[in-house]
Amino acid sequence: MVVSGILKLGIFICLCIVFLNSASAQEKYSPLVFSKVIDNPTHISMVQIIRHIYDKLEIPVSFKALPGRRALQASASGETDGEALRVYEVGEIYKTLKRVPTPIVTFRGFAYTINGEVLNDWASLKNKRVGIIRGIVWAENNLKGPNIVLSDNVEQLIDKLLKGGIDVAVAVHFSVEHELSKRKDLPKVSRGEPLIEFKGYHYLNEKHEHLVPAVDKQI
Question: Which residues contact 9 (CB under 8 A, 6 or more apart)?
Fold first, then answer.
C-alpha cells in the first residue's frame, strides 16, 4: 500500500512537471501583438528591428496599426501586448507599460514651413498655427493651446502645411522627409535646428513584464 501510494504520488508529480513545462513553453512561444502608430514611417521602419529582436527569443510577433492615442490606450489596457516604439515619458504616464531600458533609436523633431521662415526653438512657434500628429506624446507635451492643430498621421499633417491650413508642421525628420519624398512639384520646405532630440523605447504591457530583461539583452 505504501509503495502504491508513493508510485501514485510520483506519477502525479511527473504529470505536474510536464504540465508546467508545457504551459511555460506555450507562454514562451505565444504570439505577441504590439501597437504601432498607423501610417507612421518611423514605426514602419522599426517593425523589422523589433521583429528581429523577438526572432532571437523565438517569439512570433505581429503589429496592430492604430491612431496614436488609440494605440496607447490599447497597449496600456492590455488589448495589445505593448508598444512598438514610444518616447521615455510614456512609461511615466502609463504605469501598465513597462519600458525596455535600452533605447532602440534616437530621433530629432523639427519645425517645417513653406514660407521660407526658419524656426529653431519652441518659443519661435508662439502665435503660429502649429500642426502635430495626434497621440505623439513629445509633441503634445511641448505644444498646447488653441493654435495647435491635430492630424491623424503625417500625410494629413503635410497636406495641411502645403494647403495653408497650418503655418508650421512639427514632427520627427524621418517621418516628414519620407512623406515629402513621395510627393512631386513641392514648394520649398524649410526646417531649422532641432527643436528636440529624444530616444525611442520599446514597451511591454505589464502582463509580459517578465520578458523585459530578455528583450533588453537582445537590444
Answer: none
What are residue 201's phi and psi, to 5 degrees?
Answer: -120, 155
Instruction: Give the SS3 label for residue 199.
Output: strand
What is the C-alpha separation between 143 and 130, in angstroms, rounded?
8
Q: Dihedral, CA atoms, 207, 139, 146, 122, nearest 10 degrees? A: 150
Question: The cell 502645411 sits on which residue?
Answer: 161
Query: Mean pLDDT for each consecutive 10-residue tract of the chain (219 residues)?
Result: 49 47 50 90 83 95 92 96 94 96 94 95 95 90 92 94 96 91 91 93 97 96
Q: Are 144 and 161 in contact (CB under 8 A)?
A: no
pLDDT of amino acid 58: 94
Q: Grid coordinates standing for 81?
A: 501586448
Distance (Å, whole) CA 132 – CA 149: 6
DSSP for 106-155?
EEEEEEEESSS----SGGGGTTS-EEEETT-HHHHHH--STTEEEESSHH
CA 196 to chain centroid, in Å, comes to: 17
Judging by DSSP bridges, how do beta strands 105-113 and 196-205 pair with one another?
antiparallel
Q: State residue 45 phi and psi, 5-degree precision.
A: -70, -30
Question: For residue 19, what are the CA distances in angstroms to 15, 61, 74, 216?
Answer: 6, 25, 31, 29
User: Which H helix or E strand runs over 113?
Assistant: strand 105-113
